[in-house]
């Protein structure tokens, strides 16, 4: 015979507590979840529109050099006097200092050239070279006096890109010193620092790569006479680039997160909506009444855990008058008021508070089909204790309910030691029949009356 505490096979399919909570939350917040999925799908569509439907364009700017100009000074001096260092006629080139007695004349050259990105162009170049005398204050604080004299003017026509044009000039340094002294003598002062500059102004006009161009350049080569020597300060080659900005429209490129992540949002949202719709239609979301009842019972059972002890109530303790209560809360209140414990009898699937002259009982509501157990048949549904343990300890809900008897006069059959049947009634009126050691039945009445006399063997034979 199967033990009535043994769980049914339905326990193997009991849902997980987290699954129950998720389903209950989805059922309660179904509209909110659907709206959230719709918003997510709309967001995914918005993010996917530009990368896949209308990517748009962005403006890229690039600075390019259309054409450039280059100017440079060159200078040298020829040795004219005998000396122990330099031979007569030797050219001293691009030195920062020259000897006035040995090489009094400074020969200079000014060079101009240009280049174009397209390799086409034709320009006219005019070079105007002047010699400027001036007296300047220290630290570039100003010019006290200035005088210019023309040296030469050179013109070049139809100059092509890459072609070099030059203008040559010559400065007699001792004569410049004499000219400065003459000016100072006429001014009556030697204030400031005397300088001599070769100033070149270049005008360029023409076409480069089909575009009209016109530029003016001004550069100077500084000469500083100092009696026996003179210094030359060359500014070096100067380059001026003529640039333009090119704008171009190119398609906007999006990264993989924007391109494919947006599609993933749409797909996930739509799949979620379809899945929720199918699950709700099939009734797979809302918890069943049995699961909800089991959850409520687990909560109640756990709330009064400290007042409940598990054990077995002897039959003799139940011979006192029986009072059935409608809830475990009421039974716990009785236990507190009477200073007793609540006994959870797993065999009977009931909760008891046993007093000296009365006992109280609470029978949990059935989670099964609610039908009473057939006589002499063991139950295969879990008792309340197993349900509570399943929920609180294992985190799972029982799919089957309790098989407790109704509060009616229907009888419950148990076996003592697996042999003799014991029949009891709930209202105390129906007879209680027991057998001792499986032999002759002992019949009693609950109201204390005399039991009916047994018939003898002869009387039974006559009756047969």
Automatic annotation (TrEMBL):
<keyword id="KW-1133">Transmembrane helix</keyword>
<keyword id="KW-0812">Transmembrane</keyword>
<feature type="region of interest" description="Disordered">
    <location>
        <begin position="368"/>
        <end position="464"/>
    </location>
</feature>
<feature type="transmembrane region" description="Helical">
    <location>
        <begin position="30"/>
        <end position="49"/>
    </location>
</feature>
<keyword id="KW-0472">Membrane</keyword>
<protein>
    <recommendedName>
        <fullName>DUF5305 domain-containing protein</fullName>
    </recommendedName>
</protein>
<dbReference type="Pfam" id="PF17231">
    <property type="entry name" value="DUF5305"/>
</dbReference>
<dbReference type="InterPro" id="IPR035185">
    <property type="entry name" value="DUF5305"/>
</dbReference>
């Amino acid at each position: 015979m199967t033990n009535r505490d043994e769980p049914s096979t339905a326990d193997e399919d009991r849902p997980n507590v987290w699954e129950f909570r998720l389903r209950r939350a989805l059922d309660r917040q179904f509209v909110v979840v659907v709206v959230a999925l719709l918003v997510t799908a709309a967001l995914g569509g918005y993010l996917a529109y530009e990368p896949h439907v209308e990517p748009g364009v962005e403006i890229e700017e690039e600075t390019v050099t259309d054409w450039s100009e280059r100017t440079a000074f060159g200078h040298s001096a020829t040795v004219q006097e005998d000396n122990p260092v330099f031979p007569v006629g030797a050219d001293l080139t691009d030195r920062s200092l020259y000897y006035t007695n040995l090489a009094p004349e400074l020969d200079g050259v000014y060079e101009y050239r240009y280049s174009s990105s397209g390799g086409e162009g034709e320009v006219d170049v005019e070079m105007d070279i002047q010699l400027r005398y001036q007296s300047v204050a220290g630290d570039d604080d100003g010019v006290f006096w200035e005088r210019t004299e023309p040296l030469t003017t050179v013109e070049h026509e139809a100059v092509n890109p890459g072609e070099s044009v030059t203008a040559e000039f010559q400065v007699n340094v001792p004569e410049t010193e004499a000219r400065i002294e003459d000016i100072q003598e006429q001014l009556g002062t030697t204030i400031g620092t005397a300088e001599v500059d070769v100033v070149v102004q270049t005008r360029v006009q023409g076409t480069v790569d089909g575009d009209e161009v016109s530029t003016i350049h001004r550069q100077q080569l500084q000469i500083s006479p100092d009696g026996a020597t003179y210094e030359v300060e060359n500014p070096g080659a100067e380059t001026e680039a003529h640039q333009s900005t090119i704008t171009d429209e190119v398609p906007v490129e999006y990264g993989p997160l924007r391109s494919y992540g947006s599609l993933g949002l749409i797909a996930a949202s739509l799949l979620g909506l379809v899945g929720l719709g199918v699950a709700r239609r099939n009734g797979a979301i809302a918890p069943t009444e049995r699961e909800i009842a089991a959850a409520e019972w687990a909560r109640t059972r756990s709330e009064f855990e400290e007042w409940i002890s598990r054990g077995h109530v002897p039959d003799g303790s139940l011979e006192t008058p029986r009072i059935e209560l409608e809830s475990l809360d009421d039974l716990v209140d009785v236990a507190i008021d009477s200073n007793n414990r609540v006994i959870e009898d797993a065999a009977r699937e009931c909760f008891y508070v046993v007093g000296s002259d009365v006992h109280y009982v609470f029978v949990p509501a059935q989670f099964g089909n609610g039908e009473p157990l057939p006589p002499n048949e063991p139950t295969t549904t879990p008792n309340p204790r197993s349900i509570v343990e399943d929920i609180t300890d294992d985190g799972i809900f029982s799919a089957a309910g309790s098989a407790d008897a109704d509060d009616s006069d229907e009888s419950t059959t148990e076996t003592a030691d697996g042999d003799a049947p014991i029949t009891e009634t709930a209202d105390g009126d129906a007879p209680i029949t027991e057998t001792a050691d499986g032999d002759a039945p002992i019949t009693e009445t609950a109201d204390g009356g005399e039991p009916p006399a047994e018939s003898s063997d002869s009387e039974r034979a006559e009756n047969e």
